[in-house]
Amino acid sequence: MDKGHLSGNITYLMGGASLNDSLLQSYRNFHLTMQSIFLAIGIMLFISIITFKDFLRLTLLFILLLVVFTLSLTILYKMKRIIISRGEDVNFWHRALLKAEQNVPKSERYFTMFKIYQQSRYKKSEEHFLKETFLSETAQIDDKDLDMLIERNLGYTRKILDGWLFTGITIIWALLFLFSVSWYLFYLHTLGF
What we know:
By secondary structure, the chain is mostly helical. Helix content is 83%, strand content 0%. It is built from six helices and no strands.
């Protein structure tokens, strides 16, 4: 493969990776914005529920909270699947880029060097091994090798946003809903229901 074609191939792969990473960030931003709005509405409804003493208003607010709660969690789990899937798309482009860089001199494997840098932050002891595996002129990498740079130790941000954030939002909603149900049942009990 000539150098011009190889350079164009790497540029194309970097464009694909950048586009998919940009889409991933957009989906995350959209999702966080939506969930923030839903949680704000949920908190306002909860405050209204514990404030009002009128049975009809309280019941309507509780039903509205139930609708917002259901809508929020439905969107949360659908968006989680979309975001995880888009993350796998980013991984696809990163794999292809790492493979393509194996055909250029090691001093020009910038993306590979960056991925080694990322991984060595987690396990400094593996830095030499990763450099030998990916930056030697004679290395033959396979999918298992690529997993060392792509799948293992996904970035800290990705772990937080693709895992803990969804769990955290679910826990907040569960607590909010549990407190609302408890208050509503308590109120019904004081009315003699």
